Structure formats: C-alpha cells, structure tokens
Amino acid sequence: MTSLPSRLHANSNSDVPPELRIKVTHASDQGKRRYQEDRYLVCRVTGGHLLAIFDGHGGSFTSQLCKSKLRNLWTKTSGKPSDRLSLVMCALDKLTAMYGDGSTASVVYIPDSLQSIHVATLGDSPVIWKNRNGCEQAPEHNVRTNDKERIEAEKRGGHFDGIYICRGGLGLQMSRSLGDRYLRGVVIQTPDIVEDHLLRNSWVVVASDGIYTNEGEKQRMIQRLEMGADAEDLVKFALAIPYNRDNVTAIVFRIGEKRGKSSRARKSS
Question: Which of 45, 48, 85, 125 is the most exposed place for a label (fewest CB within 10 A)?
C-alpha cells in the first residue's frame, strides 16, 4: 500500500482560523488488479487546498496527465471557486480529448476559511462530506445506479446492456468522463459543480469507486469516518471486502477545533 499521511498546518499568511486545525491523510493501493490506474493529488494552493482523484480506465495515461496538469491549470484561473473549477475541467477536457483511454475526475477546493467546500465531478469517484444535515455527496454518473444519467446517455445514442452504456463494440459504466475519444457524444465531459457549507468539526472524503461497492459499505465507511478513521483505515477496510478487485484510493480532509488550555485542564482534573 502507498500510504502518505500528513498534517497540514496553516502558515502565517493564510486565513485559516487560528482556533481550527487541519489534518489530511491519503492512501492508495493497487488491490487485486495487475495494474494501478488511480491517480490523486493533495496540494496547498493560494487561498486554500486542492484535492483530486482521477480513476483511469483502459490505461492510466489520461489519469496521470490530469494529475500532472491540475495544479498548474488551477493557478492560471481566477474568480469564484465554481468558475475556476469549471475552467479547470474544461482545460482538462481539451488536454485529454484525443486519447482512447479515459478517467473520472473529482476535484475539490476548500478555502482557508474552512467554511465551504466546492466540488466538480465527472464519473463515479465519490466525494462525501459532513454538513449540518448529516452527510452530503456530490453527483455521480454511473449508469448502473443513476437512472437519469443512463436515460440521457441513451438519448445521445448509447445502448445500455445492463452494465455498460455502449456504442459499437465499446462500453463504459459512466455517462461522463475525460478522454474516451471513441465514446464521445454518448459519454459527455460536462461536470456537475456543487458548493456547500462545512462545519467547524467536519470531514471530507474523496475516493476512487473501489472504496465501496454498495450502499451498505458506504454507510459503514461513513461510520468509520465519524469514529476518526483516516485514509489508510478506509483503504484497508475496502481491500478486505472479498469481492472487491478494484484499485482503491482515498483522501480524508479533517477540520477540528484546537484544544485550549482550559479543556486540557478539565481533562486532567
């Protein structure tokens, strides 16, 4: 397993509230497959943090290209986070349009204020976060689980065979992706972009779809996150599922309140 836990601290020039702390962990494993097509990025950018998962299919060229270009593309944009995400996803589409392999793209921006989350998704790499209503999940575009996306792909000329949306002899489980030159038109490259408020004690998970395979496993993952699980914990649990043969990657971004002297004193008394 490639596991790279880290703790990111606000520097003196950031706007991270002094009473809050950030902890980010990330882990990735090839699993039972003979190859690793997941790519991910965790980086500090001016004004916040950028988290991304690119889950490749048919090869890893597109997912690797997206990972290598994302940070630079972000720095060239300006304006509202949602507009910047839209510009970045458009740029990634242009970079990958000629390639036959493909990739999901789940890109998250969290400003230093830690009060909001901004998400762009193409495909089925889940992004889930804790908010005032419990948990929220960004839209996913898997045609087996999202009937609306399947129907729209069929309207664009695709044929659903019960597993894949197909054109000719090619098929994909997603209605949206990057790359996938030979499925374009049926599979589109328009991302869903969502924004939400974050709590002062919250978490965000960005993962490849190998992190769970059904709703029950998803709920158990959320329970583990509520109990303090980090990215390596989530990946290990996913790898232990007997029928999971996918690559597994996870990023966990935690926000928490710093413990002051008074709380430490109460605990020791």
Answer: 45
